[in-house]
Design goal:
The structure holds two protein chains of two kinds.
Chain A: H1 4-23, H2 35-47, H3 50-82, H4 84-98, H5 106-113, H6 117-141, H7 145-153, H8 158-169, H9 171-196, H10 201-210, H11 214-246
Helix pairs in contact in A: 2-11, 3-4, 3-6, 3-9, 3-10, 4-6, 5-6, 6-9, 9-10, 9-11, 10-11
Chain B: E1 2-14, E2 20-32, E3 36-40, H1 47-55, E4 62-67, E5 70-71, E6 79-82, H2 94-104, H3 109-122, H4 138-150, E7 156-160, H5 168-185, E8 188-193, H6 196-202, E9 205-210, E10 215-221, H7 233-262
Parallel strand pairs in B: 3-8, 3-9, 6-7, 7-8
Antiparallel strand pairs in B: 1-2, 1-4, 4-5, 9-10
Helix pairs in contact in B: 2-3, 2-4, 3-4, 6-7
Classes of the chains: A mainly alpha, B alpha/beta.
Organism (chain A): Halanaerobium congolense
Protein name (chain A): NitT/TauT family transport system permease protein
Subcellular location (chain A): Cell membrane
């Protein structure tokens, strides 16, 4: 709560500077809207449900793509951690893929799946998968050997060892992978929607541009940022803290 | 009756320079049922390696270990091991940790829970059954680890320097508890330590290991009943004897390293 005061002051300060710049009248209103205009667009957008529909549509794609990338990433991660040959061959490839911004795949996706749902989900999957692969394989490789030894002397078989010991022991890394994957999927989704049409938030951003409505553009940018911040801060960071605490990895 | 029979056992590790390092050489040892036996020796004498071989976690290079009439080749819950790091599963509560081995044994759920609870009571941690390991002290964690091993009802409890990371006070308390558990359950315990006083206080028999190659140097029998008084002259005498033996071994080890550096 103590931190709330400086935060509020900071936001008020930004709004004040914004309002000040607006009143200098350097740019026309439609190119540089006032905070009030953005506020009205935001309220109107929620009132006529445009934003609600857009956010729902975006989240639907995100959840589908994100789930696929988690599943895919986990499976690949397990394979890489289990087989040296796979690590030596696919490992470097994954690192290279991870450094490719996922929007780069869009032209390919559009040709393969044509405009629409599938192309965007494809891009989201490619955005989210690689971080999950890397974190899953690191997590599984770094399971404390003594935990595995302890389980073995208690008589576990290989399947039990994987599901009941190795996988849960890797959870701290898996959570980090899930968090990064989410962030990258979200970015990929917005990029995909901007170009690949559909009816999500990204597409509303494009309408704003086409109609010369900067107020709408800024409102959507704020929405994208807020959603990203809120999910990361209230969903993933919370989960991460709980896990790190329970696994005894939190130094605090 | 002999429970465990170690026969002509050798263990070599391949070193980087392709030379074979003799970790254990020609080990012959019989361990009786209900015996509390300790392995003691300088670091690198192979005492922990031998324990790992008994657990079936690593294979011997030659020779064999028989448990009753069964050849030991793999880990199994007839020989459960307790480690220096308690090795509890941090995502499970105390009682869930204790239940881990029972679930593998496919014991009826209700029965298993009651067993786990009783075992926790035996190590005086029943009130902490729903705590997570990170909420426990080092000594408490080790007690949970012992409970988790004993609840499986193994033939042998293998302990690899289980109290090595604890402070002296906690260690003394756990000695007391372990002896009581050992007397109540009549388990066979193989206990690896580098603490001479600990070995003398707890064991029926102490096997002193030498290093380079790792081998059995001498064996001490102690028939003084538990609980033992530290000041007991027989114990003090044995303690001093072992100390001298180990000093000799460590000195030899030092000369060996010196020779290696010199050449």
């Amino acid at each position: 709560m103590k931190k709330l005061l400086p935060k509020t002051i900071f936001i008020l300060l930004i709004l004040a500077v914004w309002q000040f710049l607006f009143q200098l009248n350097i740019w026309p209103d439609f190119l540089f809207p006032s905070p009030r205009m953005v506020m009205i667009t935001l309220i109107e957008g929620f009132k006529d449900r445009t934003f609600i529909f857009a956010i729902t549509a975006s989240f639907k794609r995100l959840l589908i793509g994100y789930s696929i990338s988690l599943l895919f990433g986990l499976m690949l991660g397990v394979l890489i951690a289990s087989f040296q040959l796979i690590e030596d061959t696919i490992g470097p490839f994954i690192l290279a893929l991870q450094s490719v911004p996922s929007v780069v795949w869009l032209p390919l996706a559009l040709l393969w799946f044509s405009m629409g749902e599938k192309a965007i989900i494809f891009v989201v999957v490619l955005g989210g998968t690689w971080n999950m692969v890397i974190n899953a394989s690191t997590g599984i490789k770094n399971v404390q050997p003594v935990l595995i030894k302890a389980a073995k002397t208690m008589g576990v078989n290989k399947i039990h060892l994987f599901w009941k010991v190795i996988l849960p022991a890797a959870v701290p890394h898996l959570i980090t992978g899930m968090r990064l994957s989410w962030a990258f999927s979200w970015r990929a989704l917005m990029a995909g929607e901007l170009i690949g049409s559909g009816d999500g938030l990204g597409q509303i951003l494009m309408w704003g541009r086409d109609m010369g409505n900067m107020s709408l553009v800024i409102t959507v940018i704020l929405l994208i940022g807020s959603i990203g911040y809120l999910t990361d801060n209230f969903l993933f960071k919370k989960a991460e803290t709980i896990v790190l605490n329970r696994w005894g990895l939190n130094s605090k | 009756m002999n429970l465990l029979n170690i026969k002509d056992l050798n263990k070599n590790f391949k070193q980087e320079n392709e030379n074979q390092l003799e970790v254990l050489k020609n080990i012959n040892l019989k361990i009786k049922e209900k015996e509390f036996i300790s392995f003691i020796g300088p670091s690198g004498c192979g005492k922990s390696t031998l324990l790992n071989i008994l657990a079936g976690l690593i294979p011997a290079s030659s020779g064999q270990v028989m448990l009753k009439n069964k050849l030991i080749q793999n880990p199994g819950n007839d020989r459960v091991m307790v480690f220096q790091e308690a090795a509890l599963f941090p995502w499970l509560t105390v009682i869930e940790n204790v239940l881990f081995g029972l679930k593998i044994k496919n014991i009826d759920k209700k029965k298993a829970y009651q067993k786990a609870l009783d075992q926790l009571e035996a190590v005086q941690l029943k009130n902490f059954k729903d705590s997570y390991p990170h909420q426990l002290s080092g000594g408490m964690k080790q007690r949970v680890a012992i409970a988790r091993a004993l609840v499986i009802d193994p033939e042998i409890l293998l302990m690899d320097e289980p109290f090595g990371a604890l402070d002296e006070q906690t260690r003394l308390m756990l000695h007391h508890q372990l002896i009581k558990l050992w007397q109540d359950t009549e388990k066979t315990i193989v206990f690896v330590t580098h603490n001479i006083r600990e070995a003398v206080k707890l064991s029926d028999r102490i096997i002193v290991f030498g290093s380079n190659p790792g081998r059995i140097v001498e064996e001490f029998k102690i028939d003084i009943p538990q609980p033992r008084d530290r000041e007991n002259p027989t114990l003090v005498r044995i303690e001093n004897k072992i100390l001298k033996l180990l000093e000799k071994e460590i000195k030899k080890q030092g000369e060996n390293t010196y020779e290696k550096i010199a050449t």
